[in-house]
Amino acid sequence: MKSLRLGAYLAFTAVALCSVDPPSGPEVTIRAIDARTGGPYSRLPVCVTYYRAKLDPSDPKATSNTADNVSSVIRITTDTNGTATFRLPSPLPSQLNVDPGSLGCGQTMFDIVDVIHEGVVGTNICKGKAKSKPKPAPKPREIVVYARQFSFWDGVFH
Predict the structure, then answer these.
(1) Tell me, what CATH number does 131's domain have?
(2) Domain total for the chain?
(3) β-bridge mates for residue 77, sequence order
C-alpha cells in the first residue's frame, strides 16, 4: 500500500514538474518600418542576439566581444503589420542586437534597460519618405527598426 502511494506521489510530482513553463522575461515587440515609404515592413526576417555583458566597441579584444558573451540567438519574421513579438530570456541579457541583415538601415544594438523601460528607435540612414516623417514614439518593450529593399540600381550607384 505504501509503495502504491509513493508511486502515485512520484507520478504526480513528475507531471507537475513537466507542466511548469520555464522562467522567461518580459515580452518585447519589434516594429519594422519601410524606409522608402514610412509604412510597416512586412515579412522581414530578423535575427535577435542576446549579449550577457555590454559590448565595448572601442576594444575589439575585450572579452565582452567574444562568442562566449552571446547567450542565445533567435530568428523571427515580422507579420503583415510589420511587427514581431518574442520573450526575453531569464536572466535578462545586458544588450540585444536586432539585425534585419542586408536590409537594415541603421542602429541595431540596444541596451536592455532602455528597451524595457522606454522603448527604443534605431537610426535611419537610408533614403526614403520615412526620413521626412516624424520619428516614431516607441512604447516600453518596443524596438523600432528601419529596413529597405535595395534595387539593382542602388547597388550600381553606391
Answers:
(1) 2.60.40.1120
(2) 1
(3) 45
Question: Tell me: the pLDDT tens digits for 61-82?
Answer: 555 555 566 677 889 999 999 9
Residue-range definition of the domain harbouring residue 58: 23-150
Show the CA angle centred on residue 115, arms to residues 111 and 119, nearest 5°: 135
**Global confidence as pTM:** 0.72
The answer to whether the beta carbons of residues 106 and 148 sit under 8 Å apart is: no
CA distances from 1 to 4, 8, 26, 46, 76 (A): 5, 11, 46, 57, 52
Region of residue 111 (left: phi > 0; alpha: psi -120 to 50; beta: else): beta
Residue 112's nearest CA partner among 35, 57, 48 is: 48
